[in-house]
Amino acid sequence: MPGTSGRVLVVDDSEVIRQLIRVNLELEGFEVVTAADGAECLEIVRRVAPDVVTLDVMMPRLDGLRTAARLRAAADTRRLPIAIVSACTPADLDRGASVGVDGYLAKPFDPADLVALVRRLITVGESGPPRGYAYGFGATGGATGGVAGGGTTAGGGWRTDSALGEHGPIGEGYP
């Protein structure tokens, strides 16, 4: 689609969430392709050649973290920017970091944070690896989640992980 900001593959088992993400990204000029679970994502990712993939964690057939691991394992999708858009547990976040997920946005989310995350990941994808920042938690002005690559910190070197309700000095726990 000419004049688009990039192509995003949105993977979520909830049709309502897929449509919500689609509408918000399309309003910002992105082309959006959707899949209902990780298995469908793997079936279509090479055909649609997205610039970014967003994944829910809890999905039937193949969950988001196993999907991310398979995308990282394949040579042709190894460098594809991946964001988790989900309500995750701390263990899910650790697993996401271990498989190379590039960003995280907590549900429910502010649409502006979603757009900012996708734009950042497209920019990172264009500059190529190494990405080396797996997660950059912290609200981006709202109170809904983290954006890859260093959201904001809350006062004097403290980070706020609004997705988990935690806060503390930068460098302790999550970056």
Automatic annotation (TrEMBL):
<keyword id="KW-0597">Phosphoprotein</keyword>
<feature type="modified residue" description="4-aspartylphosphate">
    <location>
        <position position="56"/>
    </location>
</feature>
<dbReference type="GO" id="GO:0000160">
    <property type="term" value="P:phosphorelay signal transduction system"/>
</dbReference>
<feature type="region of interest" description="Disordered">
    <location>
        <begin position="154"/>
        <end position="175"/>
    </location>
</feature>
<dbReference type="InterPro" id="IPR050595">
    <property type="entry name" value="Bact_response_regulator"/>
</dbReference>
<protein>
    <submittedName>
        <fullName>Response regulator</fullName>
    </submittedName>
</protein>
<dbReference type="InterPro" id="IPR001789">
    <property type="entry name" value="Sig_transdc_resp-reg_receiver"/>
</dbReference>
<dbReference type="Pfam" id="PF00072">
    <property type="entry name" value="Response_reg"/>
</dbReference>
<dbReference type="InterPro" id="IPR011006">
    <property type="entry name" value="CheY-like_superfamily"/>
</dbReference>
<feature type="domain" description="Response regulatory">
    <location>
        <begin position="7"/>
        <end position="122"/>
    </location>
</feature>
